[in-house]
Amino acid sequence: MFEFLKSLIFRPKSSRSDLDRGEVRRLDKALRKWVEDKRYREYDLNRHDVAAQLNTSREFLNAYMTKVLKSDFNTWRTSLRIEDAKKILLEKRELPVEIVGQMVGIGDRSNFHRQFTRVAGCSPKQWRKSGSIPK
């Protein structure tokens, strides 16, 4: 899973050329720590809240997401959450799917099911039953 997370965070420096390199390096480090601490699991955080946690502006975070990660914030965070959920579903088979969704920061059962299916290509129950289904 770390390789997947690493691929979401790190991109070639060429895509960073029009952003302040020092600020990009600082944000890279802060985001890496934010992901390692699984802060993406926190409920009801918007970009402004996350930017404050990362000690940057919402505008710079948006630019970083667009230019460096080639994604918008919500898609990126959802990908982190679903990758985390995939692992939990297989490691803690006794937990209800709804609880797994809550653990990764998606409290609404139907929203978790919809987001999981969109990202993973199958339902959470199918993922668990099969031991993983490649997308």
Summarize the model shown.
With 135 residues, the chain is an all-alpha fold. It contains eight helices and no strands.
Number of strands: 0
The SSE string, one letter per element, is HHHHHHHH
- Average pLDDT, to the nearest integer? 87
Computed over alpha carbons, the radius of gyration is: 16 Å
Uncertain residue segments: 11-17
| Terminus-to-terminus distance | 15 Å
- Sheet-strand content, in percent, reads under 5%
User: Main sheet, how many strands, which sense, barrel?
Assistant: none
Helix and strand composition category:
mainly alpha
Helix content: 55-70%
The helix count comes to 8
What global shape is seen? elongated
Q: Can you characterise this structure?
A:
There is one protein chain. By secondary structure, the chain is mostly helical. The chain has 8 helices and no strands. The protein has helices at residues 2-9, 21-36, 47-53, 58-69, 73-91, 97-103, 109-120, 124-130. Helix 5 (73-91) packs across helix 7. The longest helix is centred in the middle third of the chain and has 19 residues, at 73-91. It is elongated and about 45 Å long. 22% of the residues are buried.
Keywords:
single chain; 65% helix; mainly alpha; 135 residues
